[in-house]
Amino acid sequence: MHSAQHFDVLIVGAGLSGIGAAVHLQRQSPGRSFAILEGRDNVGGTWDLFRYPGIRSDSDMYTLGFEFKPWTQDRSIASGSSILDYLWDTVGEHDLKRCLKLGHKVVRADWSSESATWNLQVEHLGETLRFTCNFLFMCSGYYNYRKGYCPEFPGRDQFRGEVIHPQHWPEDLDYRNKRVVVIGSGATAVTLIPNLAESAAKVTMLQRSPSYLAVDSAVDRTALRLRRVLGSRMAYKVIRLRNTMRQQSTYRSAQKDPEKFKAGLFAAVRAAVGQEYLDKHFTPTYQPWDQRVCLIPNGDMFQAIASGKADVATAHIETFTETGIRLDSGEELPADIIVTATGLELVTLGEVDFTVGGDAVDFSRTWTYKGLAYSGVPNLASVFGYVNTSWTVRAELVAKFVCRVLNHMESTGASTVTPRLRPEDRRMRRGPFVEGFSSGYFQRANGVLPGQGDRSPWINPQNHRATKRLLTGRVDDGVLKFESH
Questions:
Q1: Model pTM?
Q2: Contact of 337 with 162, CB cutoff 8 Å
């Protein structure tokens, strides 16, 4: 094993969170040595991993983009490739290429109390490298990059066509003039269907139950007008603030008066595909924002349905057959290709094995500190964004908070910072990491994610105002323990 390379801060992950964290570190906590370790051979994270047809953002780029770098393209709902270009532009503008280490996959992180450092094992080109750092900032996302979630389907082995998971889309897959069944009703499914329908013979969305769908324009005309009047930078600030507040207001409205919120969504669906389709296929049984609301930009999926190129089946699968899928109703959906858009497999901190003082860390037994750190685990922070607002809005608040923690450590001579339960916290009610969110991928992950308590700062609010208040308060709050070794 090679001798260790040491940095003040190591950022793990070069997606939106990691690149943004690096820029904030440069700006707000300068003078520290740092590197970005990325397991893939490209930046982008999600936007490099997913290669399926039509891959795009599911929220607007005025909020999914960085606060310090205006989004200047006309389309606010952006393609995966344009997001990658945006990220590489950011790398170039902030001279991050020199500290970017692609193809470096972190597999293990061991905390040494004696040296007050993290010791990382990193795989690179078949070798195991060592890195050490004083502070570890995990920006590696929240789902398994090796595989997506796919339930066991009866009879799968007898299907003679191809079965594809969107997370592993083959570059050479030819679906022209083919019959395609897409299993799922979430963001991936509703993105795939109109794009596949352009050249497939027929695309069927097969769902066990419907999702809420919202029709909106892929181009924000107000933003374009403001850009002409105010210029790109000022217009971006205004639109970013407006859209963030609008997202939060929409969420609050859905919680306060779900029937009114549903009525607006249903009216758009009814106008696109009619009452019968709405009743049969697009009326969920749960309340809005118990799961994410899926965006249909420019109504593209509904246009594919109206044209006859796509349709929807709402039923349970009895079995795969040689030539398709037989439903519990007895109906058979013929298929040449089956796409299992069945969701993500959540993991904690990029599946890295962590130890503290030689003991393995079980994050499911820890408490989350402000949704970014873990009780009893020193010199470690991670990014988890919002589920009801653009991810990056919260990611940047987290990055700024981490910079303030680092600055406080420097000014006080502290070598470690650790969230520790106070005596009054030890009997807290324990709740899930994200409360009030029933999506399957979160329910399946309850055994791996930390819990949140019933009092600040052991909480992970999904309300922007509350989060901003939480992450702009004092860092020496009596819960973060700053110590010198």
A1: 0.94
A2: yes
